Prior knowledge:
By secondary structure, this protein is an alpha/beta fold. It has three domains: 25-51 and 217-384, Rossmann fold; 60-201, CATH 2.40.50.1070; 398-473, no CATH class. 31% of the residues lie in helices and 21% in strands. The protein is built from 13 helices and 16 strands. It has helices spanning 12-15, 24-39, 96-108, 154-164, 218-232, 249-256, 269-281, 294-303, 322-331, 343-356, 411-422, 428-437, 461-473; strands spanning 60-67, 73-78, 85-87, 126-133, 140-146, 168-175, 187-192, 197-201, 204-208, 239-243, 261-266, 287-291, 310-313, 335-340, 359-367, 377-384. The protein has a seven-stranded mixed beta sheet with strand order 3-2-1-4-5-6-7, covered by helices on one side. A seven-stranded mixed beta sheet has the order 12-11-10-13-14-16-15, with helices on both faces. The protein has a two-stranded antiparallel ribbon with strand order 8-9. A hairpin with a 5-residue loop joins strand 1 and strand 2. Helix 3 packs across helix 4 (154-164). The two termini are 39 Å apart.
Amino acid sequence: xxxxxxxxxxxxxxxxGCQLDTAYPDQLGYKQxxxxxxxxxxxxxxxxxxxxxxxxxxxxxxxxxxxxRSGRIISGVYQSGTHHVVGxxxxxxxxxxxxxxxxxxxxxxxxxxxxxxxxxxxxxxxxHVLVKRGFATNEVMLVLVTGTPVFPxxxxxxxxxxxxxxxxxxxxxxxNPYRTNLVLGDKQTVLYGxxxxxxxxxxxxxxxxxxxFYQINPVQTEVLYxxxxxxxxxxxxxxxxxxxxxxxxxxxxxxKRGAGSVVGVELNGEAVRDAVMxxxxxxxxxxxxxxxxxxxxxEELADAGEKCDVVFMDPPRAGSSEQFLRSLIKMSPDTxxxxxxxxxxxxxxxxxxxxxxxxxxxxIQPVDMFPHTxxxxxxxxxxxxxxxxxxxxxxxxxxxxxxxxxSKATYQEIKDYVLKEYGFKVSTLYISQVKRKCGIIxxxxxxxxxxxxxxxxxxxxxxxxxxRAALEHFGMI
Length: 477
């Protein structure tokens, strides 16, 4: 693992793509502490698994294109919270081949008299460039997102790009004529190659189209999925459900690793088509896929009395729906493997499952999928509690009588947040007073004054507002 502090990115403050600009071991420590703070009430949190080389890990890179007032074409990313394009030629977390291709496309535009799209007027040609690379296969997809289907000198432009970058295996034009924040439009045309690329993950081949979701860090995805398979402990006869399956990655790995049968469910129709193709490419006959909402699908299965032995769930950042979780409880599989990209919503869902069912958390494993950002991936094993089960829980003694709201942040974390965001120093007393006003039950203070009518300072309005903001930030109110 790299221990030295990385060279500071020149556009770190403008870009916003990375939130952590510290030495990598410090980043891992920060993420470990965050996961422990949110999840330790459920069980012991294993040490986070980091990367040996936490740079250039993104296999998918996209750039917005813009022409400034002096006529210079700029490619890069939108500054956080704005539509101002920050020019970037190379990025420490993006695939280096992808970055070079994007710069090459930009430099070719003037010689073909191709313009960039203007968001204000709705006119112009090139809006975005998207590059995807299979790290295992070295196949490269170039997607040109245009504001119009009309592509002057199309064939000659594609020939020029492929000549300069012969590693490109397919070129696709995606048309997005709408004034929208979405990068890709609905219509696309294959200009070169077959319109898809393939990659290998955990020994399985996967077909990747312009719109399909595929994990952006394949190195750590293998670590994550191997840990998920270890938790599932498949013996060869299990019926497995892969919820939120995307292009079928987790389910296909499970099917190949010994599951008896696998069912995958995904709302995105194009991803389901890719999943079916991926299963065929891997010669698997013990897996099938359905298009639908994961929660509704689970509810139908539970109502029909269907049973699963193992459920893999990999929901989006918003976490799972209550409908899905209630259906999961009703179906009652022996094992649930929850893969999460958001520890806050993971904590919420685990709280629901452990409160409303016999499920208990057995293992918690954080994985650093996104170095230099605040995002954290975790995989959690849940099993139904049996009478003789013992659960190892790592708790501080003063946490034993905390309410669920209190346990979300310590007094010191609230103080640090208020100081950082508002410049106020606030006391434990003030925080306690605001908590009481917000209905968060505090434990009795046994260290109170012995005077008959003690004078107790009251929290000023400006500090109360800042403390309330902190409680909202930590999800306590």
